[in-house]
Design brief:
- The chain has strands at about 1-5, 10, 15, 20-25, 30, 35, 40-45, 50, 55, 60, 70, 75, 80, 85-90, 95, 100, 105, 115-120, 120-125.
- The chain starts with a strand and ends in a 17-residue tail after the last strand.
- It is an all-beta fold.
- The mean pLDDT is about 90.
């Protein structure tokens, strides 16, 4: 696992695997998140992940008689913000500066500067902010 300078993972976060986790600089994972890093999670710089977000990288093939597992890494690029209680499904890439609204279930890649919401998440509009500020809360017991 690699975590960049001024980044922070808060209390009560659960990892499903040792390793396969990379987090850039000035990023935060808030309390109570579930990080299924069995296939790998990459988080960029200046990323904010709010409380109780779930990121999955592995699931089951529902069309298989054996119900075998299948999965892919999740990539969260620079400047992304994920609001509370969102779910990110296996193989998704959240591109630069996008926003995932609370409670959304993201099943497909989200394009740069998009704001998505719902189940399944759909593009609602584009962001006006080009370079958002750092999301880092690098002190204990924040939020």
């Amino acid at each position: 696992m690699r975590i960049g300078k001024r980044s922070c993972i808060h209390r009560y976060c659960k990892f499903f695997h040792v390793g396969k986790f990379v987090m850039g600089k000035n990023s935060v994972v808030n309390f109570g998140c579930y990080l299924d890093n069995r296939r790998g999670i990459t988080i960029g710089n200046n990323v904010g992940i709010a409380h109780n977000v779930k990121i999955y990288t592995l699931g089951h093939n529902i069309d298989s008689p054996q119900f075998e597992t299948k999965g892919s890494p999740v990539v969260i690029e620079d400047g992304v913000f994920i609001f509370s209680n969102a779910m990110i499904m296996p193989g998704v890439t959240l591109h630069h500066n996008c926003v995932v609204l609370p409670g959304s279930i993201v099943t497909k890649d989200v394009e740069e500067n998009a704001i998505v919401g719902g189940n399944p998440a759909k593009i609602l509009r584009k962001r006006n902010v080009i370079n958002p500020p750092s999301q880092s809360y690098n002190y204990w017991f924040a939020l």
